[in-house]
Amino acid sequence: MSSPVISGALDQTHALLKGVPADAWDAPTPCSDWSARQLADHLVNLPAQFATMAKGEQVDWSAPTPHHDDAAGTFRRHADDLLAALEAHEGSVPEGMMAGEFAIHGWDLASALGHDRSGFDPEVAETGYAFMSQALADEQRGQAFAPAKPAPDGADAYERLAAFAGREVPFSRNR
């Protein structure tokens, strides 16, 4: 049986990718080394990487991320493949790991584009935070995650997760 949290994370990420304006691909993101295009390419590739993990195969996380002209369409295909792999290999990839990746990078992209996140499911970020706060020690952060920063008062689940992942919350698009 597939996870409603992961299905929801995939659906909201797909909707976010469908809403990226053509002139926004070069926008800066909270991931300081990535433009919106590079971040979207990473997001598009994540379900394929998780599907590979679900099948018990090795993922080369350091491999260059391919560029996808149809980010939303390619993401949807990869997402469907991931759901099928998770159905066939239940419990093979930690739900919190996947939720954390989709929540953080969904927040990153929405923040970079100034998109409204009111429709984002807080359970996705909460599931990701529960996993990451246990699995990600300070010495494991490396290049992927900066040291945790304090979340502002009144921060929602996505903002708390983003701050834990070392993002500036709120993100200033005018940097």
From TrEMBL:
Protein's organism: Aeromicrobium flavum
Highest taxon in the source lineage: Bacteria
SUPFAM superfamilies reported in the protein's UniProt record: DinB/YfiT-like putative metalloenzymes
NCBIfam families to which the protein is assigned, alphabetical: maleylpyruvate isomerase family mycothiol-dependent enzyme, TIGR03086 family metal-binding protein
Gene3D superfamilies: dinb family like domain (1.20.120.450)
Transmembrane segments: none
Domain Mycothiol-dependent maleylpyruvate isomerase metal-binding stretches: 9-88
Single annotated GO MF: metal ion binding
Alphabetized Pfam families for the sequence: MDMPI_N (PF11716)
Protein name as annotated: Mycothiol-dependent maleylpyruvate isomerase metal-binding domain-containing protein
